[in-house]
Amino acid sequence: MATRTAVRAVPLAIACTLVAVLLVMSAHAQVAPSRDEAAAYTGLFAAAARGDAKQVTALIAAGARPDVRDAHGRTPLHVATYGRHTDAMRALVAGGADPNALENDRYDIVTIAAVADDPATLRVALALGGSARNVTSPYDGTALIAAAHLAHVEVVRLLIAAGAPLNHVNNLGWTALIESIVLGNGGAGHTEALRLLIEAGANINLADRDGRTPWVLARSRGYEAMVKLLERAGAR
């Protein structure tokens, strides 16, 4: 009876927490270059924004610094990644750009591609040396946590294969597995992300800061498919 009472008591607490979290997250979303910013770019930034790989190579050969920063702390590589300009990304890294550089909000090219649900660009980012293990964003998270939150299933699969830490806990007290539940909608995408994480070996009993396990969180939200996945894996 105590367990059932605890499960019934969770939704209001979760709802209050989520409102606060989503308000904070909306203020710290990734910031791609605006149209005005892109129009004002010159030199290497302009070439990256256009996806002009030949110009990128020529400018670096002429002395342009590959890791120059704009007002938001973005490098040309960040800009090219936002634009899905993979040839320009390759040219920048070949010219010395750091594939693990963080911009002012601490996003890297792997996380940018993950949040954009862009597996093609993500594959290039990883091949260029971007790490799925980086701690990114104002939440001290990872690209995998972001992808699980957003139900970007193919991205989750790629990041797991690239060695993303399965049990990293962000500064909200959540893992990728927990975010697939508490910031998900219980639908097919989030459930599949949860399944992939379970099969990869994520800790199914690692609780949040309030001691709520993934099973309790999924049960409290009425996400029966998630509950069944967790129970089959031995969650409690």
Describe the structure.
- The chain has 14 helices and no strands.
- The protein has 236 residues and is mainly α.
- It has a domain of 127 residues: Serine Threonine Protein Phosphatase 5, Tetratricopeptide repeat (Alpha Horseshoe), CATH 1.25.40.
- It is elongated, with a radius of gyration of 20 Å.
- It starts with a helix and ends with a helix.
In short:
By secondary structure, the chain is mostly helical. The chain contains 14 helices and no strands. Helix 5 (76-82) packs antiparallel against helix 6, helix 9 runs antiparallel to helix 10 and helix 11 (176-182) runs antiparallel to helix 12 (188-200).
Mean pLDDT: 91
- What is the terminal separation in angstroms? 15 Å
- Please report the number of helical segments: 14
> Roughly what percent helix?
55-70%
Work out the strand percent.
under 5%
What is the string of SSEs from the N terminus onward? Answer: HHHHHHHHHHHHHH
The biggest beta sheet, please? Answer: none
Broad shape: elongated
Name of the CATH superfamily of one domain: Ankyrin repeat-containing domain
The appropriate CATH architecture of one domain is Alpha Horseshoe
Low-confidence parts, pLDDT < 50 over ≥5 residues? 1-10, 22-27
Any idea of the CATH class of one domain? Mainly Alpha
Derived from helix and strand composition plus strand pairing, the structural class reads mainly alpha
Radius of gyration: 20 Å
Strand tally, please? 0
Q: Classify the fold: give the CATH topology of one domain.
A: Serine Threonine Protein Phosphatase 5, Tetratricopeptide repeat
